[in-house]
Design brief:
InterPro entries: AAA+_ATPase (IPR003593), ABC_transporter-like_ATP-bd (IPR003439), BCAA_Transport_ATP-bd_LivF (IPR052156), P-loop_NTPase (IPR027417). The chain has eleven helices and eleven strands. It has two domains: 183 residues, 3-Layer(aba) Sandwich (Rossmann fold), CATH 3.40.50.300; 69 residues, no CATH class. Helices cover 37% and strands 27% of the residues. The chain starts with 5 loop residues before the first strand and ends with a strand. A seven-stranded mixed beta sheet has the order 6-7-8-3-9-10-11, sandwiched between helices. Strands 2-1-4-5 form a four-stranded antiparallel beta sheet, covered by helices on one side. It is globular and about 50 Å long. Helix 3 packs parallel to helix 6. It is α/β, with parallel strands linked by helices and 266 residues long. Bound molecules: adenosine-5'-triphosphate and magnesium ion. Magnesium ion binds next to helix 1.
Length: 266
């Protein structure tokens, strides 16, 4: 369990859309330096809304953070444009693997370096790192992103985020719609980045099986509220988590489901 100071902290965050829809209520969570934290929850639980709040992306969706406080690296993010957050190291890969379809894979990656005004040499070095992480992208470097597979587009979206040299990488359902073998490739890359470079990661997922395997800790959202937090391996052993998110019914060892490090919040 990490004891490092938190890189990202959310305190009592509420998110509303328009005048009436409250999507997130009183969310508290943190991501420590070097940690992978996964935000789990079913459709509509509030994962994307929480991540939009972190990157100050709500206004584009006619939403806002109506309560609470978010700090990144000890500083409040209130009022900071997304681009400023990106240049300070808080970089998000949005839901739905956004790529510029009419640009090549390599051009897509290079757009990630533009915001930090990287030199040509730095860009070339970082491209090599991304290609080493996702060898498929090297073979597709000159292909228009719109003509590549969903998995390659997701890798390109993650690669573009890495070109911004994040300190905290946020990913919104990177596994969505992808074949298990591609999901495994992506999660292998994420865990390697965390292990080898100490990259901190906050990951929203419906696929709790892969997410809890990769993560150190998990936070479960239900109807916009945090209902459970704990160490990933212990959460994946819980009956309720297994039934709701893992599709498994085999009883876990009684020891792990009674663990004191899991906090039932609501
Ligand atoms: N732009 C929006 N305008 C109005 N309501 C929204 C908007 N985006 C999300 N919501 C509502 O907010 C709630 C939380 O949605 P959100 O997209 O954050 O959940 P999610 O956990 O990311 O779900 P999913 O797994 O489907 O991506 C839902 O009730 C949803 O309908
Ligand atoms: Mg979502």
């Amino acid at each position: 369990m990490t004891v490092a100071p938190a890189l990202l902290t959310l305190e009592d965050v509420d998110v509303v859309y328009g005048a009436a829809i409250t999507a997130v209520r009183g969310v508290r969570l943190h991501v420590g330096q070097g940690e992978i934290v996964t935000l789990l929850g079913a459709n509509g639980a509030g994962k994307t809304s929480t991540l939009r709040a972190v990157s100050n992306l709500l206004h584009a969706k006619l939403g806002r953070m109506s309560r609470g406080r978010i700090t990144f690296d000890g500083r409040s993010t209130a009022g900071l444009p997304t681009s400023r957050l990106v240049s300070s190291g808080l970089v998000q890969v949005l839901e739905g693997r956004h790529c510029f379809r009419a640009l090549t894979i390599e051009e897509n990656l290079i757009t990630g370096a533009i915001g930090r005004r990287a030199s040509k040499a730095e860009t070339a070095t970082d491209l090599e790192l991304v290609y080493a992480l996702f060898p498929r992208l090297r073979t597709k470097r000159a292909v228009l992103a719109g003509l590549t597979s969903g998995g390659e587009q997701q890798m390109a979206a993650i690669g573009r985020a890495l070109m911004a040299r994040p300190r905290l990488l946020i990913l919104d359902e990177p596994s969505m719609g992808l074949a298990p073998i591609v999901v495994a490739e992506i999660f292998l890359a994420l865990t390697a980045l965390n292990r080898d470079q100490g990259l901190s990661i906050l990951l929203a997922e419906q696929n709790a099986t892969v997410a809890l395997k990769a993560a150190h800790r998990g936070v479960v959202l239900e109807n916009g509220r945090v209902t459970l937090t704990g160490i990933a391996s212990e959460l994946s052993a819980r009956d309720d988590i297994r039934a709701a998110y893992l599709g498994l019914n085999k009883p876990p060892s009684s020891e792990s489901s009674r663990s004191k490090s899991i906090e039932v919040v609501a």
